[in-house]
């Protein structure tokens, strides 16, 4: 039976290191306050007007392609996960194709908009394409440039201190090797609290959601005037993301555990079989809570949010690549991936390396 294997991995993080202390120059916060709530010590910011979501993706992709032992022209499909695209449209998939110089192959490119869960959603989609024989070399990328859209005022600190920039990529290929490859993936969503972790402006919603527009800066429908950007948004700083941190935390710790258990039950495995858990790097406290609930030791969970912050769709491929480079993922290991984020969306995957 054909399964999907990770044939190559790569990641890229910008050179600019932004410490917690540097953020104190812009907002009322402290290194202690940030570390206590998130575990983050520093993050990376891309160089404005020189680097983009797509250019960072290219650098990560080139490493993954080389490690897969193929040429970039061998890629027959691109899946690109991000919440911070270069443009509102078109998506980053075609821009990455152009960055890599493979437009001549005219392969398909799919953009995934599932925020923190984007990489796992993309992994699940790519897995189906591989297993059905439709594609042989899929490039799956998660890349984010949050720094261009954060509020560097005290009013935005709860969000701004968390996020960083970076990109991670994998090349996925078919394998018939017994017991190897992606064993299962699980995807879920619940839109009840969609606006509790969101960047709702600009958008075409107008006054549609009357019950939430006041809290989240929806302009009056009459003010919209047929456009999805208004003067009201500029005057009131409505172009920034917002997050109900406590609600997100409470849901995340529950859904993380549920979706990991779902994957283990599907495969007949147990938490004792997990060689390494690579969670989406949302918050170190969430990862520690999940680790404790599954009785995993420190060597069974990989976290790097301390130095990169939350890179959303890029966090799992960055962490997975880094773990592999450090020898923490070896052939035969059972690797568990899990994510939770805006939407709310969440998912998991089990991979036999």
Walk me through what this model shows:
A hairpin with a 3-residue loop joins strand 12 and strand 13 (345-352). With 353 residues, the chain is of the alpha/beta class. 34% of the residues lie in helices and 22% in strands. The strands form four sheets. It has a five-stranded mixed β-sheet with strand order 1-7-6-4-5, sandwiched between helices. It has a four-stranded mixed β-sheet with strand order 8-13-12-11, with helices on both faces. Strands 2-3 form a two-stranded antiparallel sheet. It has helices at residues 20-23, 31-38, 53-67, 92-100, 118-131, 157-160, 210-216, 221-224, 231-236, 245-267, 284-294, 305-308, 315-325, and strands at 3-12, 16-19, 42-45, 77-81, 108-112, 138-144, 166-175, 181-189, 197-198, 242-243, 276-279, 334-341, 345-352. Among the domains are: 3-175, Peroxisomal Thiolase, Chain A, domain 1 (3-Layer(aba) Sandwich); 200-239, no CATH class.
């Amino acid at each position: 039976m054909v399964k999907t294997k990770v044939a190559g991995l790569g990641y890229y993080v910008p050179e600019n290191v932004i410490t917690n202390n540097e953020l104190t120059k812009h907002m009322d916060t402290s290194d202690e306050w940030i570390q206590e709530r998130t575990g983050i010590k520093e993050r990376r910011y891309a160089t404005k007007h020189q680097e983009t979501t797509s250019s960072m993706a290219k650098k990560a992709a080139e490493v993954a392609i080389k490690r897969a032992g193929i040429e970039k022209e061998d890629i027959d499909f691109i899946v690109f996960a991000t919440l911070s695209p270069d443009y509102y449209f078109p998506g980053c998939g075609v821009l990455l194709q152009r960055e890599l110089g493979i437009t001549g192959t005219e392969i398909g490119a799919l953009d995934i908009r599932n925020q923190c869960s984007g990489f796992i959603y993309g992994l699940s989609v790519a897995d189906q394409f591989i297993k059905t024989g439709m594609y042989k070399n899929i490039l799956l990328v998660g890349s984010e440039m949050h720094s261009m859209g954060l509020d560097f005022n005290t009013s935005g600190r709860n969000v701004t201190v968390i996020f960083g920039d970076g990109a991670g990529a994998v090349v996925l290929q078919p394998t018939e090797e017994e017991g190897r490859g992606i064993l299962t993936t699980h995807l879920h969503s619940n839109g009840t609290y969609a606006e509790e972790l969101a960047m709702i402006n600009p958008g075409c919603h107008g006054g549609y959601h009357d019950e939430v527009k006041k809290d989240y800066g929806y302009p009056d429908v009459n003010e919209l005037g047929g456009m999805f950007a208004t003067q009201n948004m500029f005057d009131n700083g409505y172009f920034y993301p917002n997050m109900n941190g406590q609600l997100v935390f409470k849901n995340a710790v529950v859904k993380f555990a549920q979706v990991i258990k779902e994957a283990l039950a599907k495969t007949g495995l147990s938490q004792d079989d997990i060689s390494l858990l690579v969670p989406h790097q949302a918050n170190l406290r969430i990862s520690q809570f999940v680790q404790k609930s599954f009785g995993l030791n420190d060597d069974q969970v990989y976290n790097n949010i301390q130095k990169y912050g939350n890179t959303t769709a890029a966090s799992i491929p960055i962490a997975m690549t880094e773990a592999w480079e450090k020898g923490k993922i070896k052939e035969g290991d059972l690797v568990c991936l899990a994510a939770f984020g805006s939407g709310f969306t969440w998912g998991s995957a089990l991979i036999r390396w």
